[in-house]
Amino acid sequence: MRIPRAPRRQSVLRHTVLAACVGLLVTLSACTRDNGQWKLTNVSGHLPDLGFSLQADNGQTVSGASFAGKTTLVFFGYTHCPDVCPETMARLMQVVEQLGDDARDVRILFISVDPHRDTPQTLHTYVQAFDPQHVVGLSGSEKQIANLARRYRVAYQAEKPDGNGSYEVTHSSAVYVFDRTGRARLLATASDSANMITDDLKHLIKQTS
């Protein structure tokens, strides 16, 4: 597994700009932050249900239906990401810890936007370093990833490779939350703390139990 290096200002700025674009799209879609019920952005009725067919980090093909009965968090990233991805995953690990017993029916899907490098084996090593019980790495063909990203309005773009052939992928940083039935319910952005995500997940789990 690659050890994340220190965040670089240019990369962070690119991710911040794309995150703001996603936030704008959500706002234009009439999604709201319900100060009475939710701390995160309420996307109920504005995004499609959890639907995909991809290859998991264990080599098996899984679909949205594979996670029926689970409260599912979806994050689009890649294993070579130097800053936003490890930071987001670390925040979600805090959420899992804070959920306690409620975490047993929560799954985090790490969907790669870099299918060329993120083989199932690479993803397996990556998710194992975080939490093999709750995190599943997913990848697929370029077309599969592009179609799924379009489905959930995720922006991503591979940057120009350097002299060694290394490159970064600029991508949205939002975390999508689906309830036990696979309905899209909430959206967490980089500005939402682990405590905020935990509070809303507890409420959502209780609401749909």
Automatic annotation (TrEMBL):
<feature type="signal peptide">
    <location>
        <begin position="1"/>
        <end position="32"/>
    </location>
</feature>
<feature type="domain" description="Thioredoxin">
    <location>
        <begin position="41"/>
        <end position="206"/>
    </location>
</feature>
<dbReference type="Pfam" id="PF02630">
    <property type="entry name" value="SCO1-SenC"/>
</dbReference>
<dbReference type="InterPro" id="IPR036249">
    <property type="entry name" value="Thioredoxin-like_sf"/>
</dbReference>
<keyword id="KW-0732">Signal</keyword>
<dbReference type="InterPro" id="IPR013766">
    <property type="entry name" value="Thioredoxin_domain"/>
</dbReference>
<dbReference type="InterPro" id="IPR003782">
    <property type="entry name" value="SCO1/SenC"/>
</dbReference>
<comment type="similarity">
    <text>Belongs to the SCO1/2 family.</text>
</comment>
<protein>
    <submittedName>
        <fullName>SCO family protein</fullName>
    </submittedName>
</protein>
<keyword id="KW-0186">Copper</keyword>
